[in-house]
Specification:
It contains 14 helices and five strands. By secondary structure, the chain is an alpha/beta fold. The protein has a single domain, classed as Rossmann fold (3-Layer(aba) Sandwich), CATH 3.40.50. Helix 3 packs parallel to helix 13. A five-stranded parallel beta sheet has the order 2-3-1-4-5, sandwiched between helices. The radius of gyration is 21 Å and the shape is globular. The longest helix is centred in the N-terminal third of the chain and has 27 residues.
């Protein structure tokens, strides 16, 4: 049974870009993390639409890659932020996994290494930016500098408060160089986060994902929501808007990110690069060979 995207996309009552784009000043604490904004279909239809998008997504990514190979300067960057257990890894597997891995530059940002700490916080981020033609994927990002750094008090307040404007300027700069930025904040509810952590403890195949510090992060759920609130309000810009994706329903989060990424790649408007050789002459040469 082949999925037909044109039929399934009827279930978007509101385009995901409009339903999910952050409106500064909205209350994040009031977000229903179990909702499916804009989508009137069920899980089966949502999952089918993700599958149905695979072909176009792969085609657009290949165009981007071909564009880079032909000297073009465009690239795309999917920034995945999210509360712990919000499913960032699943997005990478299920959504980014739909395209050719050769064209993807994936980078996870953890606790900075000693070498990274010797530089400004944007140093490792700059080094990880996608080259022309590539789809970059950040699992966590430069925004941690106003999230975990704030919540854990890793820098004094006057220092981390200075980062909002730096983040905005940085993204303006990379957008200006031709990178289409898609910023996604995945939000799980406190109850769902606790349930996912409990599941990690129940299942030996998930113990590797668990670390005892996760309980402390869960205890500070409210502090994280406050930090995300201010990050969203202050770093959502026309060049790099935030999309806030309720993530208690994993299938919805994957569907939403699929659509947001698809929209960004469509927006690049790339065709196939023209041949830089004489096609007819090559046909004749090949026929005669
Ligand atoms: P994970 O995503 O589960 O691999 O965990 C990565 C860890 O790195 C998380 O606990 C983050 O809070 C932490 N982390 C990411 N960026 C930073 C940063 N700039 N400073 C401190 N910790 C960070
Ligand atoms: Mg973790």
């Amino acid at each position: 049974m082949a999925a037909i995207p044109e039929e399934l996309e009827q279930h978007w009552d509101t385009a995901p870009q409009d339903a999910l784009r952050w409106v500064p000043g909205t209350s994040l604490a009031a977000l229903d993390c179990d909702a499916a904004p804009g989508w009137s279909g069920r899980k089966t239809e949502g999952t089918a639409l993700v599958a149905g998008r695979a072909e176009e997504l792969a085609d657009l990514q290949e165009r981007l890659f071909a564009h880079g190979r032909s000297g073009g300067d465009r690239s795309a960057l999917l920034v995945l932020q999210g509360l712990d257990t919000s499913g960032k890894g699943g997005i990478v597997r299920h959504v980014v996994g739909l395209v050719d891995p050769q064209g993807v530059e994936h980078r996870g940002f953890g606790v900075p290494t000693e070498e990274e700490r010797a530089h400004g916080y944007l140093w490792r981020v700059r080094n990880a930016l996608p080259r022309p033609g590539y789809l970059g994927v950040f699992d966590r990002s430069h925004h941690e500098q106003v999230l975990v750094v704030r919540v854990d008090g890793l820098e004094p307040e006057d220092e981390w408060r200075g980062h909002y404007d730096e983040l905005v300027a940085f993204e303006k700069e990379i957008a200006g160089r031709g990178t289409a930025i898609v910023k996604v904040a995945l939000m799980v509810s406190a109850a769902e986060q606790k349930a996912r952590l409990a599941e990690r403890l129940e299942r030996p195949d998930k113990h590797w994902k668990y670390n005892p510090g996760d309980v402390d992060v869960h205890r500070r759920y409210g502090d994280y929501v406050a930090a995300y609130q201010e990050m969203l309000d202050r770093t959502s810009t026309p060049e790099a808007p935030w999309y806030v994706v309720p993530a208690d329903k994993k299938w919805y989060a994957r569907l939403a990110v699929t659509e947001l990424l698809l929209g960004a790649l469509r927006g690049l408007g790339l065709g196939w690069p023209p041949a830089d050789f004489d096609v007819e002459a090559e046909k004749a040469r090949l026929a005669a060979a």
